[in-house]
Design brief:
Blueprint: H1 4-17, E1 20-25, H2 30-33, E2 38-40, H3 42-51, E3 56-60, H4 63-72, E4 77-80, H5 95-104, E5 109-113, H6 118-121, E6 126-128, H7 133-139, E7 144-148, H8 151-160, E8 165-168, H9 174-177, H10 181-190, E9 195-198, H11 204-207, E10 212-213, H12 216-225, E11 230-234, H13 238-246, E12 251-254, H14 269-277, E13 282-283, H15 288-304
Helix pairs in contact: 1-14, 3-4, 4-15, 12-13
The structure holds 1,3-dihydroxyacetonephosphate and iron/sulfur cluster.
1,3-dihydroxyacetonephosphate (13P) is lined by residues 26, 41-42, 115, 129-131, 173, 199, 201, 215-216.
GO molecular function: 4 iron, 4 sulfur cluster binding; metal ion binding; quinolinate synthetase A activity
GO cellular component, one term: cytosol
InterPro entries: NadA, NadA_sf
């Protein structure tokens, strides 16, 4: 009978035989972390994608992440771990809507959260991720910025960079935007000593109460390096599990039991197994033109970040 151990061993053997690099986003499950060559936040994954040596990259995460890998390494075969794994935020604004906004605000630089489709990126000037956003926005010469599509992240950046006029447009992450200040007060009353660490995709009423606001990797580093012993985590709940693994002497509690990204949760260890057997996943294909035009704003992100 197959066990996690036998499947894991087969994956490790196959990825070596077929020269495959497995990149996993931090929201993937612990068993996937353990077979990955690199685990990180969106910015770390982009950096890694640009320098990996293998000819095939398997991205365990959501579609825009696999598209970013393909754009940075067009000569490579790039697989998305599960064909249905998309980020709902990536499509909250259409190409036509963005084109219309650019006509309304011709003097604005368009900054896109990396959680956008490749087609949208072709119309943008620069991409940002949660860990690189503040630095990149500070480094843009223009002080008028149109920010798509996460209004919570856009608002948070605007509060960190008050010298710029930042106009956030469109939407937000359904999982993060559902958390609110009452949950913070309730959790703080249960665990008064605990530090509150949250992702900038949360509403302002949540980030304003936090001890630390940052990317998935940033939250993990803060918790590992902190002398505090307990933490309330305001991001996808897989991070609670990973932190508990990494720091058994500390305690971690989810700010909300419901902060679960159903798209990130789609990929299982058996999906990875199927990808390596050629019976699963989806190979990412993008037109030359989309890759060329979308690459400009990703390259600008890597330069300014
Ligand atoms: P990070 O860039 O912090 O990994 O976030 C990606 C994401 O989708 C958060 O919801
Ligand atoms: Fe998209 Fe939110 Fe899931 Fe991140 S957590 S991938 S922003 S839906």
């Amino acid at each position: 009978m197959n066990t996690t151990q036998t499947i894991r061993d087969e994956i490790l053997k196959l990825k070596k035989e077929h020269d495959v690099c497995i990149l996993a986003h931090a929201y993937q499950s612990q068993d996937i972390w353990e077979v990955a060559d690199y685990v990180g936040d969106s910015y770390g994954l982009s950096l890694q994608a640009a320098k990996t040596g293998q000819q095939t990259v398997l991205l365990c995460g959501v579609r825009f992440m696999a598209e970013t890998v393909k754009i940075l390494s067009p000569e490579k075969k790039v697989l998305l771990s599960h064909p249905q794994a998309g980020c709902p935020m990536a499509q909250q604004i259409s190409v036509a809507e963005l084109a219309a906004l650019k006509e309304t605000y011709p003097d604005y630089t368009v900054a896109a959260y990396i959680n956008t489709t490749s087609e949208l990126k072709t119309l943008c000037d620069v991409c940002v991720t949660s860990s690189s956003a503040v630095k990149i926005i500070q480094n843009i010469e223009n002080d008028h910025i149109l920010f798509i599509p996460d209004c919570n992240l856009g608002g948070w950046i605007a509060r960190q960079v008050p010298e710029k006029i930042i106009r956030p447009v469109a939407g937000g992450c359904p999982a993060h935007a559902a958390m609110h200040a009452d949950q913070v007060r309730q959790m703080k009353s249960l665990f008064p000593e605990a530090k509150l660490l949250v992702h900038p995709e949360c509403k302002a009423e949540v980030t304003e109460l936090a001890d630390y606001v940052g990317s998935t990797t940033g939250i993990m580093e803060y918790a590992k390096n902190s002398s505090a012993k307990s933490f309330i985590i305001g991001t996808e709940n897989s991070i609670v599990e990973h932190l508990q693994f990494a720091c058994p002497d500390k305690r971690f509690y989810p700010l909300s039991k419901d902060c679960i990204c159903s798209n990130m949760k789609l990929t299982t260890l058996m999906d990875v197994w199927h990808c390596l057997h050629g019976t699963g996943g989806e190979e990412i294909t993008l037109s030359e033109q989309v890759m060329k035009q979308a690459r400009r704003c990703i390259d600008t992100m890597l330069t300014l970040g």
